[in-house]
Every structure is written in C-alpha cells, then in structure tokens.
Design a protein that fits this description.
By secondary structure, the protein is an alpha+beta fold. 31% of the residues lie in helices and 24% in strands. The protein is built from 1 helix and 4 strands; from the N terminus they run ββββα. The termini are far apart.
Length: 51
C-alpha cells in the first residue's frame, strides 16, 4: 500500500516543467495530503532548492 511516484525528466518551457504521476490508495492517503505535497514541491522547485 505504499505510494508509487513516477517522475520523468524535467525541462524548461516558460518555467520548469516536471511531468509526474502517482498511484495511491485512498484508504491510506487523503487527496488533501497529496495536494499539500505537490504545493510544497512546487515551492521548492520555484525557489530552485531541488536539482
């Protein structure tokens, strides 16, 4: 029941784009927490603290 994240190669086109997808069990993770993860990840990318 672990989440599976697939992150592809990032590229720059009007900013940094990072195609990704996830597979989660709704019983284990509410969509609210997944949206918080992506919002924080977006902030980190925008501040260039990742890569």
């Amino acid at each position: 029941m672990l989440p599976i994240f697939t992150i592809e190669k990032f590229y720059e086109e009007k900013g940094i784009l990072l195609p990704s997808s996830e597979q989660i069990s709704h019983a284990m993770c509410e969509g609210f927490y997944l949206s918080r993860f992506y919002n924080e990840f977006q902030e980190m990318i925008s501040k260039k603290k990742v890569f």
